[in-house]
């Protein structure tokens, strides 16, 4: 269909549900997927916080600080999705969050959960990516690219930490060593604050 732009009023632009100017409407399935993904990032943030508290309660402050940083990272990702939805003229739907799990048998079980969490987030992003491609929504694939790249790094880090803890067989000396390393890794970030 060809529509001469000269026949439109000069200030006419398409608007989204929030009333903001919208360059390209968003596919309904993709929009729903992005809203769900935002919820998943928020859930991941709460889950990491619960994990951080579990370690803090057991005097492992390096693990706790590392997992708190992950929790903040997930909240940041949720914020990026929210900002993107607004940039696309959509409204952000913040639903209720379930309580995170807080019962683990040992540190290995906590970190196995963290690894699965990262893998789930990556799967969700991959699904969104293929939906965006099917919908011909290049803006969304460009938005998702760095998030997926970040997930590959996050999975790698989670696997490394789980592997280190398994290698040390949860023995006190090895746990304290890893805890010290995680504390040292936090210091540059803390010094900047
Ligand atoms: Fe995330």
From TrEMBL:
Residues 24-169 form the Ferritin-like diiron domain. It comes from the Bacteria. SUPFAM superfamilies: Ferritin-like (SSF47240). InterPro entries: Ferritin-like, Ferritin-like_diiron, Ferritin-like_SF, Ferritin_DPS_dom, Ferritin_prok. Signal peptide: none annotated. This is Ferritin. It comes from Cyanobium gracile UHCC 0281. The lineage of its organism: Bacteria, Bacillati, Cyanobacteriota, Cyanophyceae, Synechococcales.
């Amino acid at each position: 269909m060809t529509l001469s732009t000269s026949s439109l009023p000069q200030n006419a632009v398409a608007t989204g549900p929030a009333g903001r100017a919208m360059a390209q409407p968003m596919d309904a399935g993709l929009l729903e997927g992005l809203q769900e993904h935002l919820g998943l990032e928020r859930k991941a943030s709460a889950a990491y916080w619960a994990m951080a508290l579990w370690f803090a309660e057991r005097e492992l402050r390096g693990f706790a600080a590392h997992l708190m940083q992950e929790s903040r990272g997930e909240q940041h990702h949720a914020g990026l999705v929210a900002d993107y939805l607004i940039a696309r003229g959509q409204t952000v739907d913040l639903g209720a969050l379930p309580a995170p799990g807080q019962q683990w048998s040992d540190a290995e079980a906590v970190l196995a959960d963290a690894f699965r969490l990262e893998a789930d987030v990556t799967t969700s992003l991959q699904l969104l990516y293929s939906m965006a491609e099917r919908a011909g929504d290049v803006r969304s694939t460009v938005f998702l690219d760095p998030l997926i790249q970040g997930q590959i790094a996050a999975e790698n880090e989670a696997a490394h930490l789980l592997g280190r803890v398994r290698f040390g067989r949860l023995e006190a000396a090895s746990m304290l060593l890893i805890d010290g390393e995680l504390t040292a890794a936090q210091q540059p970030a803390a010094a900047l604050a």
